[in-house]
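This follows on from our talk about sequence and fold. Go ahead and set the record down below:
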Amino acid sequence: MTIRKPNFEDMLAADQDLGLRLSTDDLTAFTGMMQAVAEDYAIVDALTPELPPVRYPRAPGHYPAPEDNPFNAWFVKSRVEGRAGGPLSGLRVALKDNIMLAGVPMMNGASSLRGYVPDVDATLVTRLLDAGAVIEGKAQCEYFCVSGSSHTSALGPVRNPHDETRSAGGSSSGCSALVASGLVDAAIGTDQGGSVRIPAAYAGFVGMKPTFGLVPYTGVMPVEMTLDHAGVMSGDVATNARVLQAIAGMDGLDPRQQDLPTDRAYGADLLAGAKGLRIAVVPEGFGWANSETGVDQAVRAAAARLDELGARVDERPIPLHRKGHAIWTPIATEGTVAQMEGLNYGSNWKGLYVTSLMRAQSDWRDHAADFPDDVKSVLLAAHYFRGQYRGQTYAKAQNLVRRLKAAYLAVLADYDMLLMPTVPLKAPKLPAVDCGPAEWVGRALEMNANTAPFNATGLPALSIPCGRADGLPVGMMLIGRDHAEAMLYRAAAAYEAAFDWKTL
């Protein structure tokens, strides 16, 4: 872009906006001062920034026809082959469509981003390809990744393979349908309030939200930088662990990453069994107002099966868990909108800024009337509460996260993991397109009371299918201390090996 130097009229408009009450002489003086600032901006504009190299060839791909797009799960099909002979050689992977794949369209479920084509690969994309995976394309996701259901994308609802009248879960909705149907071996989703784990529970597969910062978010469109997690979705535990092994670790470009362990071996204990594991069942994760009896019963039965496998399973209350979702809410609400207003990156952090995305997102207000009701509800809530309390509630919630995490860690000092339902209900019916705002928003946000607290605290959480209710999958969530992913995989693998959830 060309940097235009500000003139007197620009300074006058700024003065009126800021309420500085400058005199004409002062405005003239400041206009002169701005010329030197503009020259520095022009120098920066003329320099070429360093972007991560794009190493693997690919084509822009194609938009699949409806008959070639089961469950409306794909956004773009574009096959990118990774390094021959790597540890993920031949593994078919889908990417959620907020993950950048250079040269391939990305719209993040939003009509306002139609036509955007990233110029970089996300770090996790490069790592998948280095490990030999085959990226099959970009999967649909929910509009700006706000919904936990699968009905809000600008391209229409994603349907659950177990019952196409029902939600596949969101916001990683296309990934959900592709993994659950076996059309891919694994997918990379993102999770700010449960968007990897909710689909795993609704559609019956393994979903891991790892420790905050473990997987670099570089090259992924952010939602709220203190909640952003990239996670792995797969049909089985071993594949999940293999993929996490490939994409985890520091990249030097994501300030969310700090003090990560280097001795990661996520699949090392998959055959160790459940004997000796200490598991705390959290009663506050059951019996929500919208909890379904069949879901709670299936998860309690799964806990009893882990006890049969030799784990020590006890019930341990964590009363503050009942307020965890409330603590998450101001962070997600105000933080998401602040991120949008900052053109997705804001300021005051040292990460990779993808300026092409900033340009593409810069006119989002011009499209706000077209946003779905769940996005509008977040905008309205943030506008009101930030206006009334000037960000203090957001700040207080962030401070309370430390107390919430300490409450979980107090129990985890004596146990290896916590256990509760992933979501309180089985996959609900997709709402009608013309339903009112209350039903639209309710369906989008009704399910994350148990999942959201672990985005705020950053603790790793894994959803595994543990049984069925009325013929639909039920997810059991296991939560560990920071960087306890291998332990969670061990417990999940023991359950998976001993029980076929589809027959329970």
